[in-house]
Amino acid sequence: MAHTPTHNQTKHWQAIDAAHHIHPFTDTVALNKEGVRVITRAEGVYLWDSEGKKIIDGMSGLWCVQVGYGNKELADAGCEALRVLPYYNHFFKTTNPYTAELADKLSKLLPEGHTRVLFANSGSEANDSALKLIRYYWNLKKKPQKKIHLSRDYAYHGVTMAAASLSGLTPMHPQWDLPLAGFQKVPAPYWFGAKAAGYGDMGPDEFGVLIAKKLEEKILEIGPERVASFSAEPVQGAGGLIFPPASYWPEVNRICRKYDVLLHADEVITGFGRTGQWFGCQTYGIEADVITMAKGLSSGYQPISAISLGKRMGDVIANANEELVHGYTYSGHPVACAVALKNLEVIEREKLVARVKNGIGPYLHRRLHETFDDHPIVGEVRGVGLLAAIELVPDRKKRAFFPLDPGAVGTHCRNYCFNSGLVSRAIRDTMVLAPPFVISESEVEEIISKLKAAIDNTARDYGKM
Ligand SMILES: Cc1ncc(COP(=O)(O)O)c(C=O)c1O
After folding, report:
1. What are the residue ranges of CATH 3.40.640.10 in the chain?
2. 327, 91 Cβ separation under 8 angstroms
3. What is the SS3 assignment for 81?
4. pTM attached to this predicted model
5. Residues with Cβ within 6 A of ligand 1?
């Protein structure tokens, strides 16, 4: 496909897309009225659209392109696998070198005890599979009454019936008559929003313990003998980049152990270096029984996800001595595994996780604080690794949100970003960044100057500057 399409080609793609393609998480009528943007190529941290406009991607696509776009080694690894073994499955007592090597590699990178993995093709499928495996575990343990799955407000775990049921983003439910029975929510450790939610003016650590206690209260209310699992992202991503206070996860570990509730860490965003360690479980000391991962596993170059089982679940499930009645046609697809293996090799060889932790991550946060800490509509700048959030508020000294139409200010700011050639995401009124790990300091400066202009313009439009 040509790199610089003609205007007529753009019109053609827009027309066929409008006629035949229903987009995810999109109002089709509104999109078709506005006209879709056609992305035709990408390199490093940049995207180009069909009109030749260059856009800096502050979100790594959907939080996934750890090694940046256009990595030739990943492309070559995929091409080679396509030539050598374009497809075979694992249903008939077979494996292949790519899948076996990837399972082995993951067992070495994952937290201790996570020595067994299953593969799937997306984060949603991984989470759906994890819930099935949790149910299976309790059935094998002769505790079939343990069926309630707990998760948190603002959680995002994907879109299958079960993954969406875990979601704490309530707009995800009514169109589909969800959540399914047996899914219940507990509060999120969202300290910035605590005051507005009526928790008073406590410090982060006190708040972290209080919110963990809400989990304990919920388990006791339901009855521990009925609670199967607690699912949580180490850092809540699509719910607004909620970083847990340091006191939160140790309490959650203790509570899950005490009441024999399996702890499921959804590392779909936080996995593969995003928080400055290979896994968010390592950054926050989370003692997970089951971990789900996707996105950064292949830097988004191929659709692949995995579910790892800690010792407790792994020993029981791998030794059940009966057929595991589960699996996808594409579980452990050789091409996806080959690309994921090469991706992990590149991340390791280029020391990208250490770069996130000690180099470009701290640089991004320092520059964000210098630029926005005193801004009239910025209430908080927060982050870890290469995840950063800037909370837009009417008065920077108060932990209160813009009244009326939550999200409108964020969307307004996001539109300024897009128009200036920056992809940032607005979640409610929080501006979010999650750039590729290969981003340079000068590219960080480009993001910050575009974001600053967008936030300044937003402040002016809302009469705050
Ligand atoms: C934490 C988390 N879990 C699960 C998912 C779903 O992944 P997928 O879109 O690959 O199904 C996402 C996607 O953003 C996510 O952020």
Report:
1. 73-349
2. yes
3. helix
4. 0.98
5. 62, 122-124, 127, 156-158, 233, 237-238, 266, 268-269, 294
